[in-house]
Amino acid sequence: MTALFACDEPATWRSVYEKYWDVVEAKTKDRKPGKLLKLEKWYQEELATLISSRSDKHITLSELVKLMEWKLTRGKFRPRLQQLVASNSEDTVEKCSRKAFSLLPDVWAAITELSSLKGVGPATASAVLAAGAPELAAFMSDEAMESVPGLKPIQYTTKHYALYLDKMTARSEKLNKVDPQQDWTPQKLEMCLWAMTIDTRQHLQLLNDADVKGTNKQETSDPDTDQRPAKKLKTV
Question: Cα 77 to the chain's mean position, in Å?
Answer without folding.
Answer: 16
